[in-house]
Amino acid sequence: MKYYRMSYEEVVNERSYSNIMLLNAAIPGTKPKEEGEKEKAKELHANEYFAQFM
After folding, report:
1. pTM (2 decimals)?
2. CA triplet 46, 49, 51: central angle to 5 degrees?
3. 23-33: pLDDT as tens digits
4. Residue in 30, 51, 27 with CA at minimum distance from that of residue 40
């Protein structure tokens, strides 16, 4: 909730699911720290991360 600059109660109870997903779309993805790794980490967008919990 710190990322959204809102309280937990506001995010959970007062904001719509659509608005939360739009806020998540603004979060940048992650990249592997080292390019020479054997197993490269898959880039994962915030929406994909939260969608796996549904």
Report:
1. 0.43
2. 105
3. 888 777 766 66
4. 30
